[in-house]
Write a structure and sequence with these properties.
Helix content is 74%, strand content 1%. By secondary structure, the chain is mostly helical. It has two domains: 3-287, no CATH class; 301-348 and 374-491, no CATH class. Strand 1 (346-347) and strand 2 form a beta hairpin.
Length: 494
């Protein structure tokens, strides 16, 4: 591995660790404020953070000037609103839901940028807003499918707005001012405002050991040290990588909430959380031709259909070992083998592996770039069809579980249709992705429904890269869903 790639990998792993620390603070803060006043806790937290930052950023305060102090105080006000509303909201909602709703700040930022600084939002940001809205609705649905927006959820939603205002204001002022000094002023502002609000609360008590630990962890480790680590390693990675890594914070928050606090999420709540995470990713990724090429490279039937086959083996009615055996057979013969054979480009007298010039196997002379011999083409097409038929015959002869025989038959039918219809009528990449999403949702429930988001992503990539037309992609998506539903119904699954 090249040194630059190694540094970027280490930087990404350290940023992921910082994100995990941030995600873990939700459970810790919820436990602390259940036994101690909210703003008293914030006062201690940001006092400790200020003390920890002073040796690093204290010397940068003199260079700020009055404008810098004023900008830092304004940014600190928004930061105080974010942390204050988040901490209050944690009293009335779960740590997992609070983490997921807080993640909406990334989605709100483009809208505020359009309103405040006239910065036109990118299409990905608008897509993120739509996904996040649906995710938030699913997250707040009650057991009877009624919309139940708890008080804590609404308060934490206000916190997401506060953090979004903080991000936008930083983007306005930070490029013209010293970032370290500006950060210290923000932290001091939050601490002073928290101290003032603690007098309004009117409840003062000696902090217990757990409160001191939570304040020290969140103030020193999750604020001061995390900030220092971010500034240290972010030079070795890209802003896109950083933004995408930070979208994992709500995932860590939900995971810690479930594992450490015993919280539960309904399946639709889990689906809503996944949509919110998808929204943050959609807002941050670069929707370019290069990104489309990466998606196309991985969007193949062999890749897309592996997870549902594995899920069928683990969740199906048969034993795990028998299920894994038949899933492997069907995947290798009915899905992988035809794809590999199809990628063998035929030249006159030669067969060469795709992407491997110089490894051609001579079969009689001629130019590798010439027209294919009819016999060789027929042999390749026959091999594509024989592989899934072999899987089907083996499944029938060995009395394999019904789902695997049906899947092998479906794969054989798809290959036969592709060979008979020379003009491509559907996008096979989109069809396989839609089939995988349908199978996973049928087997796992509504929590797996966000996997359908991969279908338009693959369709966009295929169209953007020039591989398929929108009509082919649409037909592929519809065909993949309908064919999979028919197989699942015939097998008695889902």
């Amino acid at each position: 591995m090249k040194p630059s790639r190694r540094r970027q990998l280490i930087a990404d792993l350290l940023l992921l660790l910082v994100t995990a620390v941030w995600g873990g603070t939700f459970v810790m803060v919820k436990d602390a404020v259940s036994a101690y006043p909210v703003f008293g806790f914030l006062t201690i937290r940001f006092a400790l953070a200020s003390v920890a930052l002073l040796p690093v950023a204290g010397g940068h305060l003199r260079g700020l000037g009055w404008r810098g102090w004023g900008a830092g105080a304004l940014i600190g006000l928004f930061l105080f609103a974010g942390y204050g509303l988040q901490t209050v909201g944690l009293r009335y909602t779960s740590a997992s839901k609070a983490g997921l709703i807080t993640g909406l700040s990334v989605v709100i930022v483009p809208l505020l940028s359009a309103l405040l600084i006239r910065r036109r939002p990118a299409p990905g940001a608008l897509l993120g807003v739509g996904l996040a809205t649906v995710g938030l609705v699913l997250l707040t649905l009650g057991p009877a499918n009624q919309l139940v927006a708890e008080r804590g959820d609404l308060i934490v939603l206000g916190c997401a707005l506060g953090f979004a205002l903080h991000i936008v204001s930083v983007s306005i002022f930070a490029p013209r001012m010293d970032p370290l000094g500006l950060t210290l002023v923000q932290v001091l502002t939050v601490g002073l405002l928290s101290l003032g609000m603690s007098y309004v609360e009117g409840v003062w008590a000696a902090p217990t050991g757990p409160v001191w630990f939570a304040a020290a962890f969140t103030g020193v480790l999750a604020t001061a040290m995390a900030f220092a680590a971010q500034n240290l390693v972010q030079r070795f990675t890209t802003p896109t990588h950083t933004a995408l890594i930070f979208t994992a914070e709500p995932v860590f928050a939900a995971a810690f909430g479930v594992l450490l606090a015993g919280e539960t999420l309904l399946p639709r709540g889990l689906a809503g959380g996944l949509l919110i995470v998808a929204a943050t990713v959609a807002s941050e990724i670069d929707w370019s031709e290069q990104a489309a090429a990466r998606v196309v490279r991985w969007a193949s039937p062999a890749v897309a259909l592996a997870p549902p086959l594995l899920c069928l083996a683990l969740c199906g009615p048969t034993g795990t070992s028998q299920g894994l055996l038949w899933a492997g057979v069907v995947w290798a013969l009915a899905i992988l083998a035809p794809a590999l054979v199809r990628r063998l480009p035929l030249g006159e007298g030669r067969v060469a592996l795709a992407g491997a010039p110089g490894t051609a196997m001579a079969m009689g002379g001629g130019s590798p770039g010439g027209p294919p011999r009819p016999g060789l083409r027929l042999a390749r097409e026959a091999a594509q069809l024989i592989a899934p038929l072999a899987a089907l015959g083996l499944a029938v002869a060995a009395e394999a579980p019904r789902p695997y025989a049906l899947l092998a038959g479906l794969a054989a039918g798809a290959v036969a249709l592709r060979l008979l219809v020379r003009t491509r009528a559907i996008s096979h990449a989109v069809a396989s992705t839609a089939a995988a999403a349908t199978a996973l949702t049928s087997l796992l429930g509504v929590a797996a429904a966000p996997t359908f988001l991969l279908v338009p992503v693959v369709a966009w990539a295929r169209v953007r890269a020039g591989g398929d037309s929108p009509t082919y992609s649409l037909m592929g998506g519809v065909g993949g869903v309908l064919a999979t539903l028919m197989v699942l119904r015939a097998a008695g699954l889902g």
